[in-house]
Structure formats: C-alpha cells, structure tokens
C-alpha cells in the first residue's frame, strides 16, 4: 500500500471526526461523495450528500445533541488506486458520559485527488445480555 494514500485517507477520517464533534453538518457532509450512500446504524438509508447531511443534522442537533465521536481506526485495504475499504471501531459518547460502541465499514473513492466516502455502514453493538 502506498503510505501517502493511507495518510490521505486517515486525514479525511480525522477531518470528519472533527467536523462531527464540532456539530458542523455541512463540513461533515463534505467528506461524502455527492452520490454517496449511508446505511445507518438503526437501518436508515440515505442516498446522496444532501440526504446524508439531513440525517447528520437530525442526529447531531435533534436526536442526540451534544454527542461526540471517537474512532479507533482499523486497517485500510486498497482495492484499486481509486478505491479503498476502511473499517474500525467507534464510540458515540453521550453528554452524560455513557457511550454506544459500534463498528463501521466504509468504501472510499479518490475523486479529483481527494478521498471521499462513497458508502458507509456504521453499526451499533447491542448492549450485553444480562443473565
């Protein structure tokens, strides 16, 4: 793998996290391709950057205001010079300090010199079963 491409992708991931944590929906949505698809953790599906921005706005400003995102990046698999697959664990930290843990698989495409999310599949882990 080209270390420069890996760095570029990781930089995009870090930028997305900063935008999310700042509550900047427009900036967060800019990390997605215009024709991106998001299959959300709760089964919601958005097609296109504008729909993804709407879902992020609803989540960050109405459903769960004040949440923060932490990501433990995993491996990056280069599928071709223009496509890469990333995966990794994440935590959504609620204002009261509790958190939801999950895992995301993202498909990235390099367009005009920049890596953009083409498809994302974040999933929330269910709480442990009590016995």
Would you mind describing this structure in some detail?
The chain is α+β, with helices and mostly antiparallel strands and 131 residues long. The protein has helices at 3-22, 25-29, 49-63; strands at 32-39, 45-47, 68-78, 83-93, 99-111, 114-124. The chain has a six-stranded mixed beta sheet, with helices on one face. The N and C termini lie far apart (45 Å). The model has no long low-confidence stretch (mean pLDDT 94).
Please outline the helices and strands:
Elements: H1 3-22, H2 25-29, E1 32-39, E2 45-47, H3 49-63, E3 68-78, E4 83-93, E5 99-111, E6 114-124
Parallel strand pairs: 1-6
Antiparallel strand pairs: 1-2, 3-4, 4-5, 5-6
What letter string, H or E per element, gives the SSE order?
Answer: HHEEHEEEE
Rg over CA atoms, rounded to whole Å, is 15 Å
Number of helices: 3
- Overall mean confidence score, pLDDT: 94
Our measurement of the CA-to-CA distance between the termini, rounded to an integer number of angstroms, reads 45 Å
Report the strand count: 6
Q: What kind of sheet is the major sheet?
A: 6 strands, mixed
**What fraction of residues sit in β-strands?**
35-45%
Shape: globular
The main sheet orders its strands as 2-1-6-5-4-3
